Amino acid sequence: MLKRIKATDLQVGMHVVLSAGWLNHPFLKNSFRINSEGQIKKILESGLEDVMIDTQKGIFSAPAGKSTRTGAGMGETGNEIEIPVEWEPEKLVPSDLLEALRDSGMDSREKAGAIYRSSITLMEKLLKDPVAKNIREAKTGIKEIVDIILSETSTARELLKITTHDLYTYTHSVNVGVLAVLLSKSVPKSIPGGLAGQDMHELGAGFFLHDLGKVRVDSNIINKRGPLTPEEMEEVKKHPQKGCEMVSEAGELTEECRAIILQHHERFDGSGYPMGLKGHEIPLSGYICAVADVFDAITSNRSYQKSLTTFQALNYMKEKLEGKFYKQVFDEFVLLFAPR
Ligand SMILES: [Fe+2]
Ligand SMILES: [Fe+2]
Hints:
The protein is mostly helical. It has helices at residues 37-45, 95-102, 108-128, 132-151, 153-162, 169-186, 200-208, 219-222, 230-236, 239-249, 255-263, 284-299, 310-320, 327-336; strands at residues 2-6, 15-17, 31-33, 50-54, 68-69, 80-81.
């Protein structure tokens, strides 16, 4: 039986049924048993005022003291049990990410949503505190996400549909990571400078961490809403090198990571930075990241510039940025968005 209660009256042990769609709250499922005070905190923080509880699956009353009555779903009705309150320490790789990745029975759209939200949490925490330990831990989470994108086509395609766009570097990092891993999967291994023999986990880490160096650039410049002065631009141009240094300090700088972090702003015609490389001097992985990077930048909302739709962005990149990218990589990127 469903009963409506105030979210502030929630208790550990209740089986909650959230009416909002799963995109509007931070949980994997709309219906689940509350196992920790942390989950109650999350519900309150998501802004839900009233929630439904299933009184047959979880506790439905809270007598004075620590004992609680249970419904049938938690054991024999009438038994009194004590439910431990678990305070999970903050982890860089969210437990719900691991849960989503392991849940093979989950609907692909729901799974993609859980992975996307968790990835954003992971990158947000990493960019707030990018110490070596966290960089290493982030790579573990990214490795799992890469495996899903490579092995579960339906989940990967859902991930492509649900990306959101904002000004935050952590959202951008996840979007670029997802897009670039998908693109790596579809770029033929046989094209010149192809990815054959490269470690996809390291490539994935490079894509997700491509802008890590921005945390070592003045945040006033990174967060500036408006065109940058030439001096500010020079500062921004240091982020590829700084990112390489950070990953190197964490002892995690492989050739695959280095190529992506250092070269995602290089351009086929030599107009990029930091080294002004051109043509096949730039590795394919650098071009893959570059295409995903530019696409996400121009489809994101920026106060001084109107964001473009997917179609407009692909058109803009084809018409205005011709000669900047590796043509075969860009052509494959366009195909990712073809209806199927
Ligand atoms: Fe960048
Ligand atoms: Fe970027």
